[in-house]
Amino acid sequence: GRRSYFHTNMNYFAFRSLQFDHPNVENISDCSVCYEEDVRVFFLACGHKLCVACLRRLFQSALNDSSLLPLKCCELPIDMTVADSLLTTKEVSDLKERLTERTAKRRMYCPSCNVFINLDLVDDSLSTSLECHGCGIELCTKCRMVAHPFMLSCEANQATKDGGLLELSKSQGWKQCPGCHMMVELVSGCNHMTCSLCSFEFCFKCLAPWAGSSCSSGSCELWDEALLLEGGAARVRAEEVVRGTRF
């Protein structure tokens, strides 16, 4: 195949530091993605081989879109340690932070500065009070909001502060993400929701965590018949408006 001087030399110099330090590097082979021939490649767990240019682009794509993390090929994880030799120190640091955020089981985002807090590292069995490392404000790890008096429950505190919003959410059919408590709305589609802020997956109907292809509670259907009928009626009304405009 035809190779560019830049692409070939990038593979040579970037992988020169890897060939002795990493067991998954082969001196000469073909890239499974760009089909570059006779270059140093990195062997993935699934057997595919990526040259340095393609592997670097993959890591940089994950920096721009953290939903790609953790990186996989053929459903098998990609060794993230190889990024140390392909990215800058800052890029490696940012990538590790985003990977930690994506893989955390208990995520929290400060309602004041929106910084990510990994609750997997916090023992809140004795106290639910936590200081945000971003802005220093005191938070409650149970309701994941600004800390409130100990004698006041999370529910009572939220009702006191956000009574108007909660009433509005009930009237509009909005619900709060169980992961970060952000308001979400189901306009169309199935009950499987993925929060755009914290990526928590849950059932919109009962708010239970989503498990594979169904609600973990086992009591909810994937599709809401009433919502499907309402969506169909809305499309019919929209088509009638368009036809009326045309004629």
From TrEMBL:
CDD domains linked: Rcat_RBR_unk
EC number(s) reported in the record: 2.3.2.31
Catalytic activities: [E2 ubiquitin-conjugating enzyme]-S-ubiquitinyl-L-cysteine + [acceptor protein]-L-lysine = [E2 ubiquitin-conjugating enzyme]-L-cysteine + [acceptor protein]-N(6)-ubiquitinyl-L-lysine
Keyword tags: Metal-binding, Repeat, Transferase, Ubl conjugation pathway, Zinc, Zinc-finger
GO molecular function, one term: zinc ion binding
GO biological process, one term: protein ubiquitination
InterPro entries named among the record's database cross-references: E3_UB_ligase_RBR, IBR_dom, TRIAD_supradom, Znf_C3HC4_RING-type, Znf_RING, Znf_RING/FYVE/PHD, Znf_RING_CS
Keyword presence, Transmembrane helix: no
UniProt key word RNA-binding: no
A Pfam match: IBR
Domain RING-type: 27-224
SMART domains with a match to the protein in the record: IBR, RING
Record PANTHER family: RBR FAMILY RING FINGER AND IBR DOMAIN-CONTAINING
Protein name: RBR-type E3 ubiquitin transferase
